[in-house]
Design brief:
By secondary structure, this protein is of the alpha/beta class. Helix content is about 30%, strand content about 20%. It has one domain: Rossmann fold (3-Layer(aba) Sandwich). The longest helix is centred in the middle third of the chain and has 14 residues. The protein starts with 8 loop residues before the first helix and ends with a strand.
Length: about 210
C-alpha cells in the first residue's frame, strides 16, 4: 500500500522527540535507562499507526513498550497518538527491523509482537519475512527465557510459513487460531488498524503465540 508523503515530515517528527528514539542502537543493553525504571520491556516490529501498541501501553502502565516502524508518514500518526495520551511507558523507533541483535542485548526483552507483517509472497523473498528463521534467531537471543512471540496476519500462506518456521526453530506453540475473532483467545481484544479494516471486510485473522525456549 502506498502512503502519501507528508509535508514537513522531518519537522513534524522532531516535534515528538520525547517519544522518538534517534539513535536506538546506542541503547542496546540499556533500554531501562530510556524508561528510567526496571519494568519488563516489550517490542512491536512494524507498529503501523500505533493503535495496538498504544492500547497495550495504556492497559499496562507497569510495562514498557518499544515500537518499530520504518515509514515516517506512518509512525508520525503513532507519535501523535502517544503524545495526546501523555504516555510515559512507550517509545518509537523509525527504522525497519533487520536484526534484533542490533538493538537488544541477550535476555533484554519480555515479549515481541508481529502484526500484519509484509507477506513478501514470492518464494525468492522468503528471507525478508519477519517470521523467517534468520529473524527468529535474533528474537530468541533478545527475549528472556520462556517469553513469547505473538503473531497476527490475514494472509493464510504467511501464517502457514510462520508456523513452520516457529516449529523448525524449536519454539513451543501455546495458542493458535485460524479465525481469531471467532475464538475465545484474549489476543482478539487488542486490535490494529489493519485488523479492524480486514474484519469489517469479512476476512479471517490468523493468530499464534509461541514460547521461546533456550
Amino acid at each position: 500500500m502506498r502512503h502519501r508523503k507528508i509535508k514537513n515530515e522531518a519537522e513534524r517528527l522532531a516535534e515528538h522527540h520525547r517519544y522518538l528514539i534517534r539513535d536506538p542502537k546506542s541503547f542496546k543493553g540499556n533500554w531501562s535507562q530510556v524508561f528510567q525504571n526496571e519494568h519488563d520491556i516489550y517490542a512491536e516490529f512494524g507498529c503501523g499507526k500505533g493503535q495496538f501498541i498504544i492500547a497495550l501501553a495504556k492497559r499496562n502502565p507497569n510495562r514498557n513498550y518499544i515500537a518499530f516502524e520504518g515509514k515516517g508518514s506512518i509512525i508520525l500518526r503513532a507519535l501523535e497518538k502517544a503524545d495526546k495520551e501523555g504516555l510515559g511507558n512507550i517509545v518509537f523507533v523509525k527504522e525497519y527491523m533487520r536484526d534484533a541483535g542490533d538493538y537488544f542485548s541477550e535476555d533484554e526483552i519480555s515479549g515481541i509482537y508481529l502484526n500484519f507483517s509484509d507477506p513478501w509472497p514470492k518464494d525468492r523473498h522468503a528471507k525478508r519475512r519477519l517470521t523467517h528463521g534468520r529473524y527468529l534467531e535474533g528474537y530468541r537471543k533478545a527475549l528472556k527465557k520462556d517469553c513469547c512471540i505473538e503473531f497476527k496476519t490475514d494472509n493464510h500462506d504467511l501464517f502457514a510459513f510462520a508456523r513452520d518456521e516457529f516449529e523448525r526453530c524449536g519454539m513451543e506453540l501455546l495458542e493458535s487460531s485460524l479465525d481469531l475473532h471467532r475464538s475465545e483467545l484474549e489476543a482478539r481484544n487488542v486490535t490494529t488498524e489493519y485488523e479492524d479494516k480486514f474484519r469489517a471486510e469479512g476476512r479471517k485473522i490468523y493468530y499464534c503465540k509461541v514460547r521461546v525456549q533456550k
